[in-house]
Amino acid sequence: MASAKGNGVALVKNIIKFVGEGGGFDKLLEKVKVVSAGEGRCLVEMVVEERHLNKGGTLHGGFTATLIDSISTFALMTRGGGAPGVSVNMNINYLKPATEGEEILIDAQTKRAGRTLAFLEVDITKKNSGELVATGSHVKFIG
Amino acid sequence: MASAKGNGVALVKNIIKFVGEGGGFDKLLEKVKVVSAGEGRCLVEMVVEERHLNKGGTLHGGFTATLIDSISTFALMTRGGGAPGVSVNMNINYLKPATEGEEILIDAQTKRAGRTLAFLEVDITKKNSGELVATGSHVKFIG
Amino acid sequence: MASAKGNGVALVKNIIKFVGEGGGFDKLLEKVKVVSAGEGRCLVEMVVEERHLNKGGTLHGGFTATLIDSISTFALMTRGGGAPGVSVNMNINYLKPATEGEEILIDAQTKRAGRTLAFLEVDITKKNSGELVATGSHVKFIG
Amino acid sequence: MASAKGNGVALVKNIIKFVGEGGGFDKLLEKVKVVSAGEGRCLVEMVVEERHLNKGGTLHGGFTATLIDSISTFALMTRGGGAPGVSVNMNINYLKPATEGEEILIDAQTKRAGRTLAFLEVDITKKNSGELVATGSHVKFIG
Question: Between A and C, how many residue pairs show a Cβ–Cβ distance under 8 A?
Fold first, then answer.
């Protein structure tokens, strides 16, 4: 639904603003641009910058994990209710490196949200080629 | 061996200094204190600060993942040769939250390093109580 | 391409016959029915039987893992070359139980196969409702 | 405590007998020998047989997963209360192959069991050499 999607974008923009305030770790997400959001899904894009890199010059595995953690949480929060839940497990596969200046898409989906647990999955791809950079799953306790 | 361990500490201190220079993601590790290192193992400690937190006031799952990624890589690098390898898979279980001001220990071990793959495991515990905050595994390609 | 898909089905049927011979563990897959296969993908279906259950009367987590392991390996083998590779990591999320008599679909895809590593992902769903039973990722060494 | 451990062994023997009855999947565990059990831990041993192998002649990844799933569940059940819980996530790293005739030890520990979730970890090693065959983590819902 177009309006719901629009509301989802506004909601996630507000979440990113909120979690980035103060001096917490999510400040790292301030340059993420929300493409679409709503109904348990959240798609954002960003440009890989120097501060996201490891010393080998590619996207740091810890930052990749941070994107999977946070963007999947935003996806979950679009379902209504809005509680972020608490992480139980996160699993990440690293398929291909991304380098400085590359645009990446982070696409997070809620696969299931029951009474106590939510299962989320994330694909990170290169915007130009569509190649997968990383895939991840994230289980959250929402009881 | 005491001297080897001492050498390991100096080595990891140099690695942390090196990876934190420039403006990459590992700058986040600058306040990590190396307790012991050598022979495929690396034990560090740090104090949880505001900038490591999620909006719920606990250690951010993405920062936890960053610690598991980076400290296990340092453990691997103490084995000689020194190459950091490339991440293939990382899995993290979140057992208990840690809050601002708490001291945590990050203990990374090389479980196996073959010709092409290294398997690393990490326990993050509260220094005072010994309680597990998170456990993780990290598979790296080192071929 | 219809003919390639057809060849894929014949190929996977032969693989299932081959791996089930002798007395190995893959004998458990003998009743799996190949729906489509080819180009790195393999879709099979089966009926949950008593011998696949845990004592709680639902699909056993170990059998779920076996399906993810084996069917993703067959998907990989449809890419040509045909080597099954060696497992490095497998991760499974259990979303919903399946019970005796239910038909399930196991859909395995090759997300990337490079020179040394292959990344595979699997969805197990209920045929009637489309609900996810489990999702899994499987990393194999193919170097 | 010797007596508690002894009770743990008897308890797990009964569990293996119980889950192996009827015609469920845990029948596969009938030849597992309980070494010690109690207080959230369970150590068993077994000999790798032909029926546990993949077509490459090594321990099947799906059977490895089954061992991790089931033995960690038995470990959890030794804590009292006795409920097996429901699997949420399982992650397995495959370090080294095991072949027919080799004796393996499966050592499962409860890392945390809270009100709703239990976190279990398992090492599978070769009895003779102590080499790791696989490591795994298992998250169960016990609420």
Answer: 36
Structure tokens at A9: 């974008």
Spelled out in words, what is the top-level CATH class assigned to the domain A8-141?
Answer: alpha beta
Q: Which residues contact residue B122 at a Cβ distance below 8 angstroms, ignoring those fewer than 6 apart?
A: B67, B68, B71, B72, B106, B107, B108, B109, B134, B135, B136, B137, B138
Nearest-angstrom CA–CA distance, D40 and D77 = 7
Tell me: pLDDT of D103 over 60.
yes
D88 touches chain C (CB under 8 A): yes
Q: What is the ipTM for the molecules in this complex?
A: 0.94
**A143 Cβ under 8 Å from any chain D Cβ:** yes
With CA atoms as reference, report the closest residue to A66 among B92, D51, D43: B92
Per-residue CA distances from B143 to A57, C33, C57, C127, C141 (Å) = 19, 38, 44, 42, 12
**Residues present in chain D in total:** 143
Which position has the token pair 């990459």?
B24
Structure tokens at D45: 């041993």
**Nearest residue in chain B measured CA to CA from C86:** B117
CB contact under 8 A, A92 and B90: yes
Contacts of A79 (CB under 8 A, 6+ apart): A39, A40, A110, A113
Find how far residue B122's CA is from the centre of its chain: 7
Which tokens hold the place of A88?
A: 């139980």
Out of B89, B95, B111, the one facing D132 most closely (by C-beta) is B111
Answer yes or no: do C62 and D62 touch at CB < 8 A.
yes
**Burial class of residue D14, CB neighbours in 10 A (0-12, 13-18, 19+):** exposed
- Residue B1: pLDDT above 70? no
Backbone angles phi, psi at B30, to 5 degrees: -60, -25
Contact A88, B135 (CB under 8 A): no
Name which of A48, A54, A96 to mutate to probe chain B: the one with the most chain B Cβ atoms within 10 A of its Cβ.
A54
Compute CA distances D2 → D5, D36, D71, D77, D108, whole Å: 5, 10, 21, 18, 18
Q: What gap in Å lies between CA D29 and CA A55, rounded to an integer?
A: 47
Residues 15-44 of D with CB under 8 A from C: 18-19, 22-28
Contact A137 C96 (CB under 8 A): no
pLDDT band at residue B122 under the 50/70/90 scheme:
very high
CA distance C92 to chain B (A): 11
Give the pLDDT confidence of D33-59 residue by residue, as tens digits.
999 999 999 999 999 999 999 999 999
Nearest to C67 by CA among C37, C92, C101, C100: C92
